[in-house]
Design goal:
The protein is α+β, with helices and mostly antiparallel strands and about 525 residues long. The chain folds into two domains: about 150 residues, Tumour Suppressor Smad4, CATH 2.60.200; about 300 residues, Orthogonal Bundle (Transferase(Phosphotransferase), domain 1). It is about 25% helix and about 20% strand. It contains twelve helices and 22 strands. The strands form five sheets. The protein has a six-stranded antiparallel beta sheet with strand order 1-2-12-11-8-9, with helices on one face. Strand 4 and strand 5 form a beta hairpin. Helix 7 packs antiparallel against helix 9. The longest helix is centred in the middle third of the chain and has 20 residues. It is elongated and about 95 Å long. The N terminus is likely disordered.
Length: about 525
């Protein structure tokens, strides 16, 4: 008991005392994820960040053991010193898939003394750990000691709520993190929780960290009530969009219901979308045999440029506009879309300082403008709000045709490689897909090679394509049967495309192509060469 009391009283100065939070089991490394985080939290006391590598966890390969109707996944986690490579103790994790129960046992090694709640452990035996146990590790060679408390944190558990969210399924993984579909414990409402690994605290430069903290800050900044009201009063929704406005939020951006931090991961709660723009376009092609029609594309374009207009008026740049980051919120013929993934959003002066130091622009390379690429004549890349316009133009081209303008995802074409004939074939593709000329003119203004002449989001609403937008209701008065739904788990899988695979839109054959077979009847003539062959 005296030893236990001494462990709890760590306020006295101790020259050898050092501890840090150690994550033993990361639930996101398992498929499906485990029920929670398992780790050792440092007891309140002095913390020496320069000795952060003195205590680290290394994981051995897990092994699966079967015992009748249950299947146990066992893995070994070793607490060691990265600098010397010496092991101190071993943690044995046992997870039963059937009952979802997790058990952790501790076994010390000969070079350390390990106390659990004041009891010295025998190196030849394993000691099961319970929630709240105090663990003290004393290294015999150096005389150092570490004091921790065993902790289990439920997965998707916001500490402000009584019960954790219920995991439904994993929606996907991107460059900023992973997204899971979960169920709210009280209202039973489905939400999306984005998981992002927080950047390290030790930084060698002044570069900003792009993580969930930045995304939450940007969401709070954009959804500031006064800014939203002033913007909507200055730019109200007019014409056909006015009747859609009742079902739409004030601005076409994803909103957040809060977030929390646990074991190095930021969790952001977002509304659950039925899919993204890429999935919606591919599902439309799969269902109807053709891409979305012109009114549908114009409806999407107006909402995307409305978001960019609001964003650019606040002096911000999104830096990652692409079909994957434009979410479809409902399953209707004219869907409501919002711009998401603000983890790379910056203001203009911060963007210039970042480019100057890193010599590289932000965002997916395939959607970067040509001026954002270093070349022989441009040693420094350039990026601005016009980069969002270029990326939006490429996203609209994909919406109209179902294929990307640039085939390789990690490719950015320098400005010197563009010629007057670069886009000629693409404009022909749009005309073959029966895209109106006013829509093609809109895309041309978005993809102007001169960033200074490229149109702004404000100017987009003065063009004919937006002004003449008139939604045409489908013939059956029903929405296109999409393959995804926000109300239940997907039953029919979405069409997946391999890297580099293109969706070919069926178009009419040009008159210049040769006819594969010729039928000579009394109503017409065959070509002269064919007539000579017949006469011979």
């Amino acid at each position: 008991m005296d030893e236990l009391l001494r462990l709890r009283d760590v306020s006295a100065p101790d020259p050898y005392y050092h501890s840090q939070n150690i994550l033993i089991v990361n639930p996101y490394h398992y498929n499906p994820p485990l029920a929670g985080f398992i780790g050792l939290t440092r007891v309140e006391g002095p913390f020496l960040s320069e000795n952060s590598e003195e205590c680290s966890i290394s994981t051995r390969l897990p092994r699966v053991q079967g015992d009748g109707s249950t299947e146990n996944l066992c893995s070994i986690h070793v607490l060691s010193d990265n600098r010397t490579g010496s092991d101190r103790c071993i943690f044995y994790l046992t997870w039963c898939k059937l009952t979802q129960l997790i058990h952790l046992a501790l076994q010390p090694l000969d070079n350390c003394h390990v106390f659990v709640n004041g009891d010295l452990l025998d190196p030849r035996t394993k000691r099961p750990l319970n929630y709240g146990d105090y663990v003290e590790i004393r290294e015999l060679a150096s005389g150092k000691r570490w004091v921790f408390q065993y902790c289990v944190t439920a997965l998707f558990h916001d500490q402000t709520r009584r019960e954790p969210y219920t995991l439904i399924r994993k929606l996907g993984t991107g460059g900023q993190g992973s997204v899971y579909e979960c169920e709210e414990p009280v209202t039973k409402q489905r939400v999306a929780i984005k998981i992002t690994r927080r950047a390290g605290h030790r930084r060698t430069n002044y570069l900003p960290s792009f993580d969930a903290l930045r995304e939450l800050f940007m969401l709070h900044l954009l959804w500031e009530p006064r800014s939203v009201q002033e913007y909507r009063r200055a730019f109200p929704l007019k014409g056909p969009l006015a009747r859609f406005s009742s079902a739409m939020p004030s601005i076409p951006f994803i909103s957040s219901s809060g977030g929390w931090f646990a074991w190095g991961y930021d969790h952001v709660v977002l509304p659950l979308a039925v899919g993204d723009l890429k999935q919606w376009v591919l599902s439309t092609i799969s269902s109807t045999g053709r891409p979305p029609n012109d009114p549908q594309v114009c409806n999407v374009a107006i909402q995307v440029f409305d978001a960019l207009r609001y964003l650019h008026r606040k002096g911000l740049v999104h830096n990652d506009i692409k079909p994957d980051n434009i979410l479809v919120m409902d399953n209707t013929f004219y869907p409501h879309v919002v711009v998401s993934d603000l983890g790379l959003c910056t203001n203009t002066w911060e963007l210039q300082a970042l480019i100057k130091q890193t010599q590289d622009a932000l965002g997916t390379r395939m959607y970067r403008p040509p001026e954002a690429t270093k070349s022989v004549t441009r040693p420094y890349p350039i990026s601005s709000q016009k980069a969002d316009i270029w990326a939006a133009g490429l996203s609209l081209y994909f919406t109209m045709t179902g294929r990307n303008l640039l085939p390789k995802r990690e490719t950015t074409v320098p400005l010197e490689h563009y010629t007057d004939q670069t886009f000629t074939q693409h404009w022909k593709t749009l005309r073959k897909a029966h895209v109106p000329e006013r829509a093609i003119s809109f895309i041309k203004r978005c993809l102007d090679l001169d960033a200074e002449k490229r149109m702004s989001a404000m100017h987009a609403f003065k063009l004919t394509w937006f002004k003449q937008f008139e939604p045409i209701e489908p013939q059956d008065q029903a929405s296109i049967p999409l393959a995804f739904s926000s109300a239940e788990v997907v039953v029919q899988p979405l069409p997946e495309t391999e890297e580099g695979r293109q969706i070919v839109v069926p178009v009419k054959r040009p008159h210049s192509e040769r006819t594969p077979s010729i039928v000579v009847d009394g109503k017409g003539k065959a070509p002269a060469r064919k007539r000579r062959e017949i006469a011979a």
